[in-house]
Amino acid sequence: MTDETVSGLIAERVRETRKLRGWKPAGLAARCAGLGAAGITENAIENIESGRRDKDGRRRRDVTVDELLVLACALDVTPLYLICGLDDAAGVPVAPRLSVTSLEARNWMQGFGSLAGQDEERYVMSLPVSMRGGYARNVDEALAALDGVREELLQRRALQERMRMAREEIMLGLGEEG
Q1: Best CA proximity match to 8, nearest among 37, 40, 38, 47
Q2: What is the tally of helices (H) and strands (E) in the chain?
Q3: CA count, 13 A, side-chain hemisphere, 134
Q4: What are the tens digits of pLDDT across the range 49-71?
Q5: In a 3-state reduction of DSSP, which class is residue 41?
Q6: Cα angle, residue 46 at apex, residues 16 and 27 outer, rounded to 5°
Q7: Helix (H, G, I), strand (E, B) or coil at 144
Q8: Which of 32, 59, 91, 121 makes the best surface tag, with the fewest CB within 10 Å?
């Protein structure tokens, strides 16, 4: 039985992934506790996975955003996988009256495109400057976005160089001791 909610999709993928790993709910709960989420107990995992219903047929136990992130970390998968899966054509209910394909949902969540009907300018303005280059309305805006990316890359290169030098110093120090 497929649950037509995001929590239902997440629950199915948590159960499938846990079983694929050969873990019992207690094993997944232990991994969650090791990440500091002791509240995601074996019982909580069983309730999430079972999708138990109330008398109106609604899911009694939705997955919170906090739980989504911990479960993805504990299962060694991305949160996007738990929400969207791997089938680009599968449906993802992003709102009670809006379902999109997994590909559309994944792109939307990663900042690669707004959903149909959204104000694209507001969507773009919610992205970090480094991601706005593909949405630039003019050359100046595109250059400003690229400058931000360039600066970030230069900082990364400087950090990598410092790390390389520190490794060399450590290796030289080890050579002198031996």
Answers
A1: 47
A2: 8, 2
A3: 10
A4: 987 777 777 767 789 999 999 99
A5: coil
A6: 70
A7: helix
A8: 121
pLDDT digits (tens, 9 = 90+) for 123-160: 988 988 878 766 656 556 666 767 777 788 889 899 99
Q: What is the dihedral of CA 69, 74, 80, 86, to 10 degrees?
A: -160
Q: Provide the token pair at 106.
A: 């994944």
CA nearest to 7, candidates 72, 64, 77, 84? 64
Q: State how far the Cα of 17 lies from the Cα of 34, in Å rounded to an integer.
A: 18
Per the CB < 8 A criterion, the answer to whether 75 and 28 are in contact is yes
Candidates 85, 88, 89, 37; CA nearest to 65 is 37
| Residue 165: exposure state from Cβ atoms within 10 A (0-12, 13-18, ≥19) | exposed
pTM assigned to the model? 0.71
Residue bearing tokens 């993805």: 72
Distance in angstroms (rounded) separating the CA atoms of residues 11 and 63? 8
**Nearest C-alpha neighbor of 74 from the set 102, 104, 50, 44:** 44
Residue corresponding to tokens 């008398």: 55
